[in-house]
Write a structure and sequence with these properties.
about 120 residues, 3 helices, about 25% strand, alpha+beta
Amino acid sequence: MNRTIVELGRAMLNGQHLSEFLWEHAILHVVYIRNRSYTKPLQTLTPFQGWRKRKPDVSHLREFGAPVWILLQGQKETRKMLPKSKRQLYVGFDDGAKAMKYYNAETRKVLVSQNFKHLIPPK
């Protein structure tokens, strides 16, 4: 299982041409998805269902590295014609907080925000 998780994380990073230092977030995203997917040993249940006794909601899932718009907050100077949001890259969900983790390429940091909008709606 560990090898499978690592290979899936590597594929996510390579598929989006993201830096290797995001490996931890890719692995966490893989595990998050695997826990909400059916497995052969459980057959009709997901690991999430086994623990929580209910079906997982997967409507919020997005592709790792997908573009998202983050609302800019706390601007010192408000100007009418400046953008109110900025495009960043999705790298996972903050479990339990209804927030999303995103990668800011300018600062090379992973941050968390509740004020976001996905560019492409889920299928």
